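Recall that a protein's primary structure is simply its ordered list of amino acids. Everything else, from secondary elements to tertiary packing, is in principle encoded there. The following example makes that idea concrete.
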Amino acid sequence: MKALILQQPSPFPRLTVADLPIPSLGDSDALVQVKACGLCHHDLLVMNGALRRGVQIPLIPGHEVAGVVIAVGPNVTTLRPGDHVVPLLTDACGRCHFCARNLERLCPQGQAIGHGMKGGMAQLLAVRENTLVKIPKEIPWPQASLLACPIGVAIKAVENAQIQQDETVLVTGASGGLGAHLIQLASLRSARVLAVTSDESKTPALEALGASDVIPTGELHFSEIVLALTEDRGANVALDTVGSPLFPQTLRAIAPNGRLILLGEVARAKAELPLPEIIFRELQISGSVGATRHHVEQAAQLVAQGKIVPTISYTLPWTQWKSALQLIQQRRHVGRVVLEFTQP
């Protein structure tokens, strides 16, 4: 099979296309023919070396995968060739107390796909049976590749935030993969969505996704605009996909007794916590990462019903991976760039 391999992470990463043997299957494994793989900002952080912990080099990147089962091990009972599937973000054991509680990402034996083990930027992927989630066959492959990340990840964050009807929800990094789907999910709960972006040209696209107001990050702090739009109350909920670069403004934009859900950190930096402000405004701050099987199944259902539309700006043949990376680095996309794969 052919695969894209990260040989050396750096600001100018060394990536090559290579012919590799077909992955061998364990008794409880399934072999998936990859049909599509999304490119996530996490992939870029791995490629440029910003994320190093647990990364196994050389590495086949990619964790946003959709494909069809073509072979199964002798102990596999829930899957058969022809099933359309997406993997969870971690290839976990399925037996430990974490897996039993749908906390696969904490599994002691688990490996993050496209991070600690071979990922989906290849024609074939072998994972454990319990890692795969069956999906409706009517969902096109590029859209299916986004069901776990970013859509499942966004569903989990929105559930954690406990967004209520008519609340004001602030989304930072609104044009990214997570941001684009957080807007849709918050709108689905009849919330007023304030979308923060560094590119005003993306305003029409963000409004089409459900943003009530689009706020640029410019000379005027966006927190001032949020307060002006909410009669100085602030947003009830902030869904932050950016992290430290915008953290002081994001915190200031939250209403008293508001909730801040942290989903991303693009700069790998530290942020200061003004403890008195958090205490006296009774703010709730929590992190949210990954998605469970339940969230991926819910994502598939919402997409199949047309309630959530996977947001994809570009779909390219996997052989054009260089162009795909350039599109992301130049921030020309809203949502995701997806690679489609050919037969092995």
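The chain has a mean pLDDT of 94. The chain has two domains: 2-146+310-340, 151-287.
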